[in-house]
Write a structure and sequence with these properties.
This protein has 93 residues and is mostly helical. The protein has a domain of 47 residues. 73% of the residues lie in helices and 0% in strands. It has two helices and no strands. The protein is elongated and about 95 Å long. The termini are far apart.
Length: 93
């Protein structure tokens, strides 16, 4: 029985398909792992942001009872400067 070229072509296609499947599976697993790591990093950043915002809000509330903290809040931009206007005036032509 002679080797048929059809059998060789089918075996080559099967080998290519198997290798392609392995590469695709590896890429999927590695990208999924990277996605989970990035989601965890994003979650940690959000927690830190919420904590900082809560601290800033507490500091502004504290400044209502003790205005000695106002220069620090003005320096970091949490409170407008005492002499500055709260809203800019529109320009007219």
């Amino acid at each position: 029985m002679k080797n048929s070229p059809l059998m060789t072509i089918l075996l080559a296609m099967l080998a290519f398909s198997a290798i392609f499947s392995l590469v695709t599976c590896y890429l999927f697993v590695s990208r999924s792992r990277e996605l989970r790591e990035l989601q965890l990093t994003t979650q940690n950043i959000e927690v830190k942001k919420r904590t900082a915002m809560a601290l800033a809000n507490d500091a502004v509330e504290y400044s209502k009872k003790n205005p000695a903290i106002d220069p620090i809040l003005e320096q970091v931009g949490l409170k407008p400067k005492a002499g500055a206007a709260s809203t800019p005036k529109p320009t007219t032509k």
